[in-house]
Batch of 3 targets.
Target 1
Amino acid sequence: MPPASSSFSPPSAAHFCATLSGWYARHQRPLPWRLTRDPYAIWLSEVILQQTRVAQGLPYYERFLAAYPTVTALAAAPEDEVLRHWQGLGYYARARNMHTTARLIADELMGQFPDSYAGLVRLRGIGPYTGAAVASFAYGERVAVVDGNVFRVLARVFGLSDDIARPASRAVFQRQADVLIAAATDPAEFNQAVMEFGAVQCTPARPNCLFCPLRESCSALQHGMVAELPVKTKAKAARTRHLHYVVLRWQNQLYLRKRPGGDIWHGLYDLPTLATEDEQLAPNDLGEKLAEWGAKTAPPSSAVAEPLGAYASKPQPIYRHVLSHQKVAARFHEVALGAPLSAAALAASGLAPYTPDEVEALPKPRLLVQWLAENE
């Protein structure tokens, strides 16, 4: 970064807080979780917004809170039902951790949230950011939040060039945020304001620097470094995973199984899949898997069936889905069964038949939801 001019200096903590408070009073969005001190509702909003934009997350928040208005209601719900309400948000570990923590609060803490940051971060799925958000918004505790928006605002305004992709850099930004919140009149408002400022004013691309109330004291703007800050090294390119879904039908029933732990979409209901190194699936691979499941296909003369080898060799549309650490390229291969799978085959494969209404009620990966919407 070029040396600062003699006339430039970053804002004092008091000036930063006062400026953001005035900006927030004029520009804050009317979001429902800002109208409550209920730690459960605040916690729910923060968990949803961890990996989700406000526009996408708001309808989920409202539906989820309507279904489970209290932490004890969430604790009493079956996991499959919770995941079904979460369907489409992705990062399903968030929902499972939240459900586990709700049960702990209901069973061991008499339905009462810990009323301090130190108590909150002891709970599963509540890290420093979420703990700080709930502690400040619900209880007024003076603890600073640091999320992606805060990283960006602090990096630009105070000229912090530490790489935010490195875990060690968090301490640098946390110290700066702690200094600032110490000067704030209302810690809850300060945290809301700095996050909102990053989301609305100091955005990743095309920030509104011309009408920024901190433009005269913003280090990045004064030194022409807005596009370069915050510094964040790029992650390695995500690998592409090729999956082939096997669509097994018997009459109006579809065979699904619950995905195990240790892989993507843990706990969701999905079609059986075959993984390959590229986009092609050999007919023999599909045939061997069907034989393993004891599947009896409909005869070629059936109106709903084709010879298996001919069908598997036909090009199928590719459905693509991008996850945080990998990309999925999926094809769907329909197989008409001539008889239902045997009880032994179901037990060995983990598959079970479901009617259309039952399929609709189950939590499913977005890829399967998309395919069903286009093909059912």
Note: The longest helix spans residues 93-108.
Target 2
Amino acid sequence: MFEHEDLLAPLDASLPLGRRLEALHARIRRDHPFVDRVAVASFEPKTSMLRTFLSSGGDLPLVHYEASLDNAPSLREILTTGRPRVVNDLELFASGPHEHTQAIRRQGYGSSYTRPIRLNDQIWGFLFFNSYETGPFTPPVLDSLDVYGHLVSFLVTSEILAVRTLAAAVRTAHEMVHLRDPETGGHLDRMAEFSRIIARDLAAEGKQAFDDEYIERIYLYAPLHDLGKIGIPDRVLLKAGKLTPAETETMRTHSRKGVEMIDHMIENFGLRHFGSLDVLRNIAEYHHEAIDGTGYPAGLKGEAVPIEARIIAVADVFDALTSRRPYKSPWSNDEAFAMLRRLTGTQLDRDCVLALVRNRERVKEIQDRFAVAMG
């Protein structure tokens, strides 16, 4: 009675999203052994940027890669029409000048089927089925892959939507409790983007073995770093002048409060199955630790500070320096970068600082997009 094995059982397990995609790809290959790669790229309407996110099967032709949708006209057509794209011979794009086109060609793929991934009636990304063969994507095959495609889309979007819901709940709580000034939203957007820049650069430079899924987690979790400030009294949190020693200690409790609140929210939102929850907890609890051990709440030192917390710390400090506050004028980027360099080895991680400095142009693009008032 119990001989049948459910090959899709891993989809119900508490496994990283990439592992679940691999299990689904294995099942797809039982029906269609020529499907050599299944990959997901994310798309952000705000920035019109495509980014590698997940991939299963064979070598990875593209990792830690991003490009403007303007450099992918056939994908833009998917965005415009909402319809999938079938290319049974990738030689069609042989003369394409862009890196992603040439990388797929160098890998030797002969054909592809590309579907949009929707989230809340908007296209969130693209799903790729690639084959080394030419001509395999016939109408019956496409009908079958559409079923798998919707399953992949559900796996990805359900997880992304839950995290975004969590982040939206945090922002709403901030606004309801403290009537935040309009700058707060921009700060969260910018520092999340800066965090992703740092993580991608660390991976590209070989400093950290981050995959694209982990980098996306950093980006999604970054806005939750100061969640615990919701639990800090207004008389301390909104005080215009210098805090007393007692008030400073009260303010410092926000990191531990943040972890407690995250655990409550994970329980209330039913997110215990999520992978990378330790990454989220580390961001909330340890983003005020210092490399020399003088930070809080645990006084961790050097590499004992989780790397995701070190990344967030640099992004947070840089945006604070370059943003206008009631008590300060914004610093220029050059001034802020110089300060980050002075803080390396004591407060901030050197590799994380250099990663941000190496991406000055991207930093300025993000500031322009999210309207930071520069000095």
Note: The first strand starts at residue 37 and ends at 44.
Target 3
Amino acid sequence: MPAGVYISSTNIFSPVGENTAETFSALYAGESGVRSMVHKKIWPDPFYASMFKKYPEVPGYSPFESILISSIEDALKYSRVNANDEKTILILSTTKGNISLIESDANIDPAEISLSRSAKKIQSHFGFVHTPLLVSNACISGILAMIVAKRLIEAGIYQHAVVAGADIISSFILSGFQSFQAISPGLCKPFDAGRNGINLGEAAATIVLTRNPEYSNGIRLAGGAVSNDANHISGPSRTGEELGNAILNATSESGITVKDIDFISAHGTATVYNDEMEANAFHIAGVQHAPLNSLKGFFGHTLGAAGLIESAISIHSLLKGIILPTPGFEQPGTTQKVNVLKELKHQDVCVCLKTGSGFGGCNAAVIFQKMITN
């Protein structure tokens, strides 16, 4: 294999499944974690979301930390990367971390909810040598964490990176999206003419990256780029130019052309403005004809875990030659038309583009490439 940064293993720990293979099989069968929830402590009325029936119980750790530990454990089990190796770094992505602890204990020590506290506890649990890095940049956190890992590995600072992300649903999070009138009253409909908001989700995911081709599962993280449109604290760019630039920069770094992209895993939140912006960006970058899916109808929007979960599924798609459909999509609903998949597609695929955008105008894009060996 050529020099590069490779995927060693992945995990998805979600209400849909507790590992990537199990989760992919469930999605292949059309199963979704999103359903009507009645959770009075979070919201007085029923709402659609993907939530755990019961969090794993790891003594001494919060639900947020426990799902992260469960995900990292499984990913490391299927990787030859050692958490105790001084050449390995842990990178965590999240948007809100332990914020839900405030709702259960008003007198809690603020130090208990700090992201650095959780990171150090997880470092200690696994025995990582170095202080973990934290990436908390709205909904691109998971993708950005992978880009940070890639650059650290390419710079020779580390040889391996365990990139893990998680978020759980709390009243704080749900009420925040409700205040934007961004929550759909039913199942979300990415890129659809009738889309009216997001469904939230909770989950953890881990992707182990390595410089060592012998540890690779056959997929390379070929390129990545970020941008910011500086449009509005919560509203995305109206033109999509900035995400389009991130896509072009990611493809340039990967050494491929946009014509080489076999499918797109879009952010696809099912809000009016995000999907419109993404469709514009795909046209600006010249990738509008590539088959596209949004996985939000399966997982909900899992915030800091979203980029990692959707990347893990995309990596599995490359390995299996299967592109998943977009739950909720029926009729095209963006000004610029894009090739949204309504049904499963079996096709030999080698290159995937994964995109993400978030509050504050942040955008990110990464390229995954299946390596062809003789």
Note: The chain has a mean pLDDT of 96.
